[in-house]
Specification:
single chain, about 300 residues, mainly beta, 18-stranded mixed beta sheet, 3 helices
């Protein structure tokens, strides 16, 4: 009897270990000719995601650790009209069908209790069009030495960090940088390194931290909007041409630097402002409830 109980106990331990074991998945595109751009569509539902450059000549390499193996990711790729289109979809269909609210998911575990982790590696040899749908989680995008024509990040609840770790800016002019969150934090370091024509950051509940270490070399339109939370904006020297339109309510605490000049109600400009300057940066800052700080 004791022998059978020991055997049962060992089997239970083994079952727990297997259930907690991670599944490693790897995907990559090895094609190197026949296209001028690489389009990446990446969809996951509860994960930690990291993107950075790789020294490999392969257009994309994806490495994932999955803690739940009941739903496996689906990867596909094809070349059409000089574009290599790659797609990884890891969608929790069962959870979506249950119709659980975001709030119930948020308080189901700790802030770092994500089911999966992904490393996405891109090459310096290709032009990229990136589209990320993250569901819930956190992400870190190091865009140094990469050539990005467009980056879109959407999430129900996430912390999104975009930066240039080695200080190497985007090699081309980016058309659009878009980050939209229902809940979470957006942190953009060296935003001028993106060389983006348009930047749009929208957060329903949370924070936007936007840092321009220097001015832009091309005209740029920036929209940063928070329903409830805060915006913290760091501007370059006031010698750069900058125009800021502020939209706030009585429930928003606003702090602006004294060097900004009032052009008209709710519109401010720097000392170097010139409407015809080819480097003109125009910003719209919108906060409903919370705080707006410009430095």
């Amino acid at each position: 009897m004791l022998r059978n109980l020991c055997l049962l106990f060992l089997m239970m331990i083994g079952w727990v270990a297997v259930s907690k074991a991670q599944l490693v998945k790897e995907f990559k595109a090895t094609e190197r000719t026949g296209f001028d751009m690489v389009a990446v569509e990446f969809t996951t539902y509860k994960s930690s995601t990291q993107l950075k450059r790789t020294k490999s000549a392969d257009p994309i390499y994806i490495h994932g650790h999955l803690e739940q193996t009941n739903i496996l990711p689906v990867y596909s790729q094809k070349i059409s009209n000089n574009v290599l289109s790659t797609s990884l979809v890891h969608k929790n269909v069962e959870s979506e069908n249950l119709g659980k609210s975001i709030t119930s998911k948020l308080f189901s575990g700790s802030a770092d209790d994500f089911d999966h982790s992904w490393d996405v590696a891109l090459s310096t040899n290709y032009l990229y069009h990136l589209d990320f749908n993250l569901g819930m989680g956190k992400s870190d995008f190091d865009l140094s030495n990469l050539t990005i024509s467009q980056l879109k990040v959407k999430s129900a609840s996430a912390d999104v960090n975009i930066h240039y770790g080695t200080g190497a800016p985007n090699k081309v002019q980016m058309d659009t940088l878009l980050v939209t969150l229902n809940m979470g934090t957006v942190m953009i370091s060296n935003a001028n390194f993106t060389n983006a024509k348009k930047m749009i950051y929208e957060v329903n509940y949370g924070k936007i931290d936007l840092n321009f270490s220097e001015g832009m070399h091309n005209p740029t339109h920036v929209i940063a909007a928070v329903g409830a939370g805060s915006i913290h904006l760091r501007l370059p020297s006031d010698s750069f041409p900058i125009k800021i339109k502020v939209r706030t309510t009585a429930m928003c605490r606003t702090s602006l630097p004294k060097y900004l000049k009032t052009l008209e109600k709710g519109i401010y400009v720097t000392k170097g402002y010139n409407a015809s300057d080819p480097r003109l940066m125009e910003l719209i800052l919108d906060v409903g409830v919370g705080s707006l700080t410009v430095e």
